[in-house]
Amino acid sequence: FHGSNNDLDLVDHGVENNGSESISMLKILQCIAVPYISIAVLMTILSVQEVFTRWAICAVGLDVDLLLSRSMPSASTTNSAAKVPSAPANTPKTTKSNCGGAQLSTSKFLVEDLFVQSILCGDANTVNQVNARPGSYTSCFRPMQCTQDEEIERNETASSSFADWIQYSSTTSMGALSEDVLRLCLLESLGGRSTKPRMKAGPRLFDFGQARHTSAIRRRLRLSAATSCPGKDPIAIPVVRSLCAFAGGMGQAATRFYHRDIPIRFPSKEVAANNPPSLADSWVLPPGSLDAAEFAMNAAARLVVMNMVTQREGVYSVDITKRHDRLSLLLPCVLRSAFQLHCGMLDYAIAQAERNGEKISSYDPDGKGDGLMKYIEARLPDIEQVLATCDEAAKMVMRIINEFGERPMEALMSGGNGDLHEWLVHLDLS
After folding, report:
1. What is the SS3 assignment for 430?
2. pLDDT class for 300, splitting at 50, 70, 90?
3. CA–CA separation, 399 vs 395, rounded Å?
4. Distance of CA 137 to the CA centre of its chain
């Protein structure tokens, strides 16, 4: 009996031990499951929030003013907490301006600042170029330099600076995907495509895109006119400069990467040894960059052209008295940037044909000399769209220049831009 009791005791203890082990395992599983469930719920909430945020930003009809006013902190916490870049150097340092009754402050981050910083990818050197005060490019050897010549020189410097950034710093200094999406949306809000089909004959005089694009361009110009002061650049000017620098810089970079005097596929080992692979072998041109360049070119042309036209009964006509003189000085800069982007895209198309082993001459059986354009139409529709945008932007500007006078063209051609002149001559301005 005593031994039986011991056996019973052993059995009872075993049951008690198994129960404690199951309870402890349940607690362990709870401790493990609760954090994982919490993390999963949190990640789901963040993912849904991210999806809705991206959908809201990418939605058609982005209102940049509303976006900035809803997302920016108050002025008292801007510099200390958010470290938002300061306003451009040309922003009037006034709290109650005498110029149009506007109120501006250098501590306030404007929509124009957002455009400049985002378009130029935060490249400090190029941002400084477009924000430099008037007279910064007048050297001691040219004290009487015309302001239009100064703008042309500034545009060349800024475009070259941005091309340098693309070549040497873009792979290491590029921001997050959300910044690229925001940049593309900002450019599209001003330079998006028109819903009207592009006409082969009888082109429209001026194409400012859809109604929302026209409204956004007009808003930027009205705000710029309302806040302008004597001796200060209108706040729209750095935006146009940055658009020209972006488009022209991309064109210059493409020419650097893809223009070469020898074919990409070397004919012999000796040639390959003396001519190492060019930059074209290590650089690609993604579709997003092509869209951004197209929107930038559209936006630059629309801003400078709408500055000099009026709309009556749905028809735009040139009105010289409406223009802002400082903004009209950028007309030749838009032409120059359009030509640089045009040349860069042609160099890219030629490089792609050589890389794929295709002969451009095979697309020109009649010998008319348009084999390259036919190849682009057949193989590179994205490049064709950018080239058409460059042509349309140049046509809009040239129609204004023809009404305005030949002074902008004289300033642009004084630098020996023979190829640019030849390109403009072949444009159909009818």
Report:
1. coil
2. very high
3. 6
4. 25
Give the tens place of pLDDT for each residue, 53-91.
666 666 666 677 777 765 555 444 434 333 444 444 444
Residue the block writes with tokens 């999806």: 51
Please report the beta strands in 260-400, taking only residues with DSSP state E, as ranges in sequence order. Answer: 309-312, 315-318
Read off the pTM.
0.75
SS3 per residue for 291-316: HHHHHHHHHHHHHHHHCCEEEECCEE
Question: Between β-strands 315-318 and 309-312, what pairing exists: parallel, antiparallel or unpaired?
Answer: antiparallel
Burial (CB < 10 A; 0-12, 13-18, 19+), residue 201, is exposed
| Block residue for tokens 């070259």 | 160
Assess contact for 152 and 216: CB atoms under 8 A: no
Checking if the pLDDT of 262 tops 50, the result is: no
Encoded amino acid at 47, one letter: S
HSE of 273 in the Cβ direction (CA atoms, 13 Å)? Answer: 3
The answer to whether residues 108 and 130 touch, using CB atoms and an 8 Å cutoff, is no
Give me the phi and psi of 310, to 5 degrees please.
Answer: -125, 155
